[in-house]
């Protein structure tokens, strides 16, 4: 019964339906699925197929086992079948290629054989809007990514540090001086969207966004569109889908008004992402429409807000669970900023971009948190033309998938992989490095690595460098302001939040609490 209740709760959360209506829809869905399964012919494939993971449930396959604990499920399959195997999930064939070589294969597969657009368009287009990201050809999306990346320069980053720090300081001032039970994630979600909107769109637009009383609710409704089932099913007659579509329409109208106001005010030289998108030109000489710019801004803010708020929360949970690391982080700030290891926190000066880059332990804490809690556990592509890998044929129609979450827990690369040990990354360049988009070179960048929290190849996250400065600045500021702990259970043990896999972004299971006290 426990498993049944868990599945029911996840479906209620994903659909927004009460349990009674959910059963009716499920029955209709099952009848339809069985009909389609019986009607479907089996394609003949020349070549050796990867091992298939059996399931007693037709069509649904291993959706439940994978959906509840995907990393454990994949690790179990890997033990039995090796780095390559296929399982059925909601009528789709999911072929996984694991490990560093599997990562390299997936992230650099040729566009003629497999596409991200085919894998994610049902999920992203309703949330972000049409005309951007996975609703356009890959070559157009690469140009759109370059428009955003052009605004994320080192010069811009130098101006972002004081903005993020001031936003964090002002936000923390609004908290009570202490709390014995404080729900962390919603607060970090609010702070990251404030800092991202201020940096990427400017102060006046950040204020316009947050003067809208319903913006938080709109973000929530768009969030509900990021459910795993939406990778396969774009629309269902359910409340969460209706709310998602209304939220996209309202957010698009809001950004269109922002564009109109910026043009009318004659504001120039903002050097932010919005200005870059407004002024950019495609290689064929055409420009983005205002609607496309609005949709790209939704995509930029939504994608960055999810991963950053989740990572900030996980870092603070891990530090509370490993309190011996916190004094070392404070000591690092003191040494970098004053040349002494024991300067009182109240006497520490503000830090800038160059000083932040000289805090390796802080960066290692972020890397170790991303290793243990990658925001995205699975990456997939839709196979459009049969392809070969390690002697196996992966037929068109399959989804070829990889999981950094599995390779990042490999004990042969990371001894005691479940242990939080930031020092294991000290001196390592794994997962680091600047790069530029030119449509060719980035696709050749090696992804043969265990550690790829921001992806690799042509779809590597363009916001990686911004995420590092945003998250490190927030954490460094928080540690100056507060002491914090995890709550305890009846046995006096720390209550560390489990990972919630019901959304595509792996968040701390809600609600998750800390206690905190403002430093004197």
Automatic annotation (TrEMBL):
Which Pfam families does this UniProt record tie to the protein?
p450
Gene3D superfamilies the UniProt entry points to:
Cytochrome P450 (1.10.630.10)
Keywords of the record: Heme, Iron, Membrane, Metal-binding, Monooxygenase, Oxidoreductase, Transmembrane, Transmembrane helix
Q: Which GO terms describe its molecular function?
A: heme binding; iron ion binding; monooxygenase activity; oxidoreductase activity, acting on paired donors, with incorporation or reduction of molecular oxygen
Chain segments annotated as transmembrane: 22-38
Tell me its cofactors: heme
Q: Note the CDD domains from the entry.
A: CYP51-like (cd11042)
* Positions of heme binding: 461
UniProt record similarity statement: Belongs to the cytochrome P450 family.
Q: What is this protein called?
A: Lanosterol 14-alpha-demethylase
């Amino acid at each position: 019964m426990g498993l049944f209740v868990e599945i029911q709760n996840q479906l209620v959360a994903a659909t927004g339906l009460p349990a009674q209506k959910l059963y009716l829809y499920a029955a209709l869905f099952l009848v339809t699925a069985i009909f389609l399964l019986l009607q479907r012919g089996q394609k003949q494939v020349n070549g050796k197929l990867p091992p298939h993971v059996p399931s007693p449930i037709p069509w649904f396959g291993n959706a439940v086992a994978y959906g509840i604990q995907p990393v454990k499920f994949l690790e179990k399959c890997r033990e039995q079948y090796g780095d390559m195997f296929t399982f059925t999930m909601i009528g789709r064939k999911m072929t996984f290629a694991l490990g560093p070589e599997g990562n390299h294969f997936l992230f650099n597969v040729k566009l003629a054989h497999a596409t991200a657009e085919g894998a994610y368009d049902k999920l992203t287009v309703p949330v972000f809007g049409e005309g951007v990201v996975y609703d356009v050809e890959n070559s157009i999306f690469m140009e759109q990514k370059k428009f955003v990346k052009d605004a994320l320069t080192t010069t811009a980053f130098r101006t972002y540090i004081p903005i993020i720090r001031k936003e964090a300081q002002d936000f923390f001032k609004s908290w009570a001086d202490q709390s014995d039970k404080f729900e962390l994630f919603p607060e970090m979600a609010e702070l990251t969207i404030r800092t991202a909107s201020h940096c990427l769109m400017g102060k006046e637009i950040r204020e316009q966004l947050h003067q809208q009383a319903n913006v938080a609710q709109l973000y929530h409704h768009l969030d509900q569109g990021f459910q795993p089932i939406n990778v396969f099913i774009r629309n269902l007659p359910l409340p969460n889908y209706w709310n998602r579509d209304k939220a996209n329409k309202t957010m698009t109208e809001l950004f269109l008004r922002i564009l109109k106001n910026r043009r009318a005010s004659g504001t120039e030289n903002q050097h932010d992402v919005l200005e870059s998108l407004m002024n950019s030109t495609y290689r064929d000489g055409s420009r983005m429409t205002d609607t496309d710019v609005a949709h790209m801004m939704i995509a930029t803010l939504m994608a960055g807000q999810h991963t950053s708020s989740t990572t900030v929360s996980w870092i603070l949970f891990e530090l509370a669970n490993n309190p011996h690391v916190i004094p070392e982080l404070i000591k690092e700030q003191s040494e970098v900023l004053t040349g002494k290891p024991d300067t009182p926190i109240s006497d520490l000066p503000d830090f800038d971009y160059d000083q932040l880059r000289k805090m390796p332990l802080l960066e290692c804490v972020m890397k170790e948190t991303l290793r243990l809690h990658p925001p995205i556990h699975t990456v997939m592509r839709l196979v459009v033309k049969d392809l070969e890998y390690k002697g196996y044929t992966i037929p068109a129609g399959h989804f070829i998938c990889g999981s950094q979450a599995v390779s990042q827990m490999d004990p042969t690369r990371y001894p005691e992989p479940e242990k939080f040990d930031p020092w294991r990354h000290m001196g390592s360049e794994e997962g680091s490095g600047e790069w530029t988009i030119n449509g060719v070179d980035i696709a050749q960048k090696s992804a043969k690595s265990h550690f790829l929290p921001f992806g690799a190849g042509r779809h590597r996250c363009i916001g990686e460098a911004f995420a590092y400065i945003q998250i490190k600045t927030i954490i460094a500021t928080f540690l100056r302001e507060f002491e914090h702990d995890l709550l305890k259970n009846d046995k006096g043990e720390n209550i560390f939040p489990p990972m919630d896999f019901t959304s595509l972004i792996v968040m701390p299971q809600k609600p998750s609490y800390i206690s905190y006290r403002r430093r004197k």
